[in-house]
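Dear colleague,

As promised, here are the two records you asked about, laid out in our usual form so they can be pasted straight into your sheet.

NAME FIELD: protein one
SEQUENCE, THEN STRUCTURE:
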Amino acid sequence: MRRTVLRRVGVLALDYLYAGRHQLRAFLDRGTPDALVAGSGHLAPVVLLPGIFETWRFLRPLAQHIHSGGHPVHVVTALEDNRMSVPEAAALVARHLQEQDLTDVVIVAHSKGGLVAKYLMGMPDSGPRIRAAVTVATPFGGSSLARFIPLPSVRALMPTAPGLLRLALSRAVNAQIVSVWGWFDPHVPAGSRLEGARNIELDVGGHFRILARPELLAIVDEVLATAD
């Protein structure tokens, strides 16, 4: 037990070190997302959805990996740091899909971004445009820790939040989702298992560090390969 506790403490420290480093990098990043679309071939388009308190720049390393494989990577800058409600965020992404006339889309999403992805896939206009989604560390069942944060955007992620409960009851698109999470997630203690989805638990600890792990990148590459 002591060894397990110490291991979790170590994971927590490394996870926040990763998050802090990449939040700083994202803050200093002055690049535009245009380069993630330019020069791509005709492979399936990818839409990248960040988690709460993250901008698309936080996920730039993941975006660059996907783009290096020949896929155009779209981001929705209007999401900013994704503190709006899930339906509001989904509406912004739906508008982007329509304006860019994107079809056969694969969504790659982190944390709350996965909730936005699932909501979007259930919308009658945007759903047919989306082929699949890879969600990483997404609180499909909510997070028991959300009640300790006195912010409406975080409280909306409580397991008993009405919006989250309604989304959980909608299972029509679950089979199109690949849900990936680590053995220990300090932000989503119950894990990210989604009924009817392809569920993959990696031997990786953390809510953020998982984004850079080769195991996750391999899963993303596999899903993209089947979409091409």
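NAME FIELD: protein two
SEQUENCE, THEN STRUCTURE:
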Amino acid sequence: MPDLNTIGRAAQDYLAAKHAARERALPKSRAAIRLCANAIRAAHRDEFESATQLLTEAGRLLHGMAEDLDKHLDIFYAGFVADAQKEYAEAALTCALIKREPLPSPEELGVEWAPYVNGLGETIGELRRYVLDRMRLGKVDVGEVLLRDMDEIYSLLITLDYPDAITGNLRRTTDAARGILEKTRGDLTLGASQARLDAALARVQERLERLTDF
């Protein structure tokens, strides 16, 4: 008969340590996700210094989670860490695309590949929002540049045809990105046509005003 008291104490110690690690990591995941959402909002307002600060703080929290769960990889891969990594990748990539900067790699961000590519796919929705906001300000040329980025991202995503268990359900992200891309293409086409029409009408109006001056 084994010493059940010894086994019981060992089980208590192990599970208590695992539970404590999870309880330390979970709030960091939630806080990191909030910071990333705020960083994206700042980027949409072109407040890039604020966005960078928020991303830096989120990155520290993700690093802290990795340290908390270093000896508990089953919890690390349970889901909530990947969610935070995906949001962090989405925020960092969105900021880089809007600022026209090189895209950070997964290694630079300290995230796994599956959250990274899903975050990349999610940037298409954020870029659509940015494009529409700039179109309302008459900046159609900005939209055309970002639409090309969206097209290239989608073209990359469809090549990553692997099981969902490996990619973190990337197929679903890719399907959503396709619809967003096509809607944005249509909106931008209409916006560009309207901008050209407005410019033509303005030129006609200017000529008419010159003629009436004589």
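A couple of things worth noting about protein two: The two ends are 113 Å apart (CA to CA). The mean pLDDT is 90.

Best,
R.
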